[in-house]
Every structure is written in C-alpha cells, then in structure tokens.
Amino acid sequence: MTSTKxxxxxLVEDDTASAEITIFKLEQxxxxxxxxxxxxxxxxxxxxxxxxxxxxxMDVNLGESLDGIEIAREIxxxxxxxxxxxxxxxxxxxxxKTENLASYGYHLKSTDFTALITSIKMALKLHExxxxxxxxxxxxxxxxxxxxxxxxxxxxxxxxxxxxQAYSTNxxxxxxxxxEASGRVLTMMHLYDRLYRSETLxxxxxxxxxxxLLKSISEIYAKSDIQIxxxxxxxxxxxxxxSQIGIIINELITNSIKYAFVDKTKGYxxxxxxxxxxxxxxxxxxxxxxxxxxxxxxxxxxxxxxLIDSLIEQLNAQMQIETCDGTKFTIKIPLDESK
Length: 339
What we know:
Elements: E1 8-12, H1 16-28, E2 32-36, H2 39-49, E3 55-59, H3 68-78, E4 83-87, H4 92-99, E5 103-108, H5 113-168, H6 172-197, E6 204-205, H7 206-220, E7 226-232, E8 236-237, H8 239-260, E9 267-276, E10 279-286, H9 293-297, H10 303-314, E11 318-322, E12 327-334, H11 335-338
Parallel strand pairs: 1-2, 1-3, 3-4, 4-5, 7-9
Antiparallel strand pairs: 6-8, 9-10, 10-12, 11-12
Helix pairs in contact: 2-3, 5-6, 6-7, 6-8, 7-8, 8-10
C-alpha cells in the first residue's frame, strides 16, 4: 500500500494564492509539498532534488514561463517521475499533447480536491508498479543473456571437438562430414553470441551476424583457394529468421566448396544481401562447375539442398537457381516475415 506520509509533491503553479491553498490541503492529506511558479525553477529543483520529489503536479498554463507540457517533457528527459497535469479548462488539443508524454493524469482545477488526492494515490501506485515491471524485464533480459552466453560457450566446445576430430582423420569423407557439422553449429553459436552482446533480444543486425559467420566459415576452409566476396547491407532482422538465413548461407558455401570446385584449383564465391522493395534479397554465386540439372529438378538429392529447400519454405521465400558459369541462387524473403 502506498504511504502518503513519505511522499513529496512538487507543485508547479504560477498562481501564488492557488499554490498556497493546494499545498496546505496536500499537507493536511499527509503529503510533503513544495511549490514553484516557473518551469525553469521546476527543472532546477528536479535536478537538485530528483531523489526527494516523488510526484509532480504541473500546471499546463504557466503564464509567461515555458509551457507546462514542454517543461514536463524536459523533466522526463532527466528523471522518470509521475506527472499529473493541472488545468482550468478541458482542452482536447492539450489532452492529446499530454497523452504523448508519460502522463499519469489530467486534473481540472475546478474538480473537488478529493479527486486530486485520488489521482495522486493512483499515479503513485501505477508508477511503483511500472518501476517493478521495468526491473523484472531488466532481470529477465540479463538472465536470457546469461543463458545465451552459456549456450554459445557450450556450442563453441562442440565446434572445437568437431574441428579437432576433423583434423585428426585422414579420410576425406569423414573430414567433410565433420566440417559440415561444425559449420551448422557455428551458425547457431554466432547467433547466441550476438544475442548476448545485443541491447535487445527481439532484433539483431544482419550484417554483424553474417560477417562473423562468414569469417568463421572461411577459417574452417582456410586451406582451400576459394575466395569469398560479399556485400551485405545492415538490415535489422528477427533472430529466428536470421538463424535460418545463416544456415542457408552456410549450406550454400559448404556445398560450393565440396562439389563446385572439384576440377578447379581456384575459385570465388560472391554473396549479396540487401533490401529490395518489400523483400530481403540474397544473391549467392560461385564460378564452379554448376549443379547438375537433375539435382535441381529433384530439389536436391543431398541433405544440404534439402535443408535449404525446407528453410526457404519456412521463410515463405522464393528461390531461383541458375547454372551459367557456375551456380547462382537468388532468394527473396518477404521483409514482413524477417522483421
């Protein structure tokens, strides 16, 4: 239950007589009251006493001083505090302006004083509830970040073991399988790393994630003479969608390195990711031998292409495959699906 005895109210009112009466009644109701007649002084008091003042009663019309709504906006930049606006008239435009701020009420001066006390009590309770909710949300985000960090570390250990096993074997088929598995874990590991570092868990930078992923994939296949060139726009994406895109790109690069350059000593891969109208456009190309047409018609005989087809369907995306001087994949993902 909110205690009135410990609450300090700052009244911003240019009418001295009205201010004195209001402060007197507030003190009778058990509150501590301080008054100021100008917006500038109110800002100074908030700066100097922000740990003392619990709630502000702000007159909308402060005469020659700054507008009460503007003063409230400046105060809220300094401190998170409940503000109740006071006015002699019920003006719709003024009401709308106050609603755009963190307003805790609009009180007509002509209304019975009991209504103001009720508004103050409700505003204090609501503010306390909002503070608790913000604290819980902050704790939840910290907990989720810690979970993401631990998952990322566990995945890093898995990647290290897979890489060590791949390095120790002399069989090319086993080495390739282990490298593929390592690449798939890497896509998820980098996602959790980005979630841990990000200020928000609901959206991530596609560029930051994909650049880190491409760097790791390049390190896995460091001994190959395949160059990876890229042009990636900084698009903000949903983490789940970003993970699916990362898996698709990992599979495309892995398939190119495994199959496209068997008869070549050198080659290149290009990747472009950018917004295009209402879509996210991904253009991937290699200058290898090209995918056989029967595999394209069969929608991929290998696991990698089957996985890509499945993810394309989940993203409600479109994919076009062309085979001319290598293989080119053009993927269009609706932006409303990816944000």
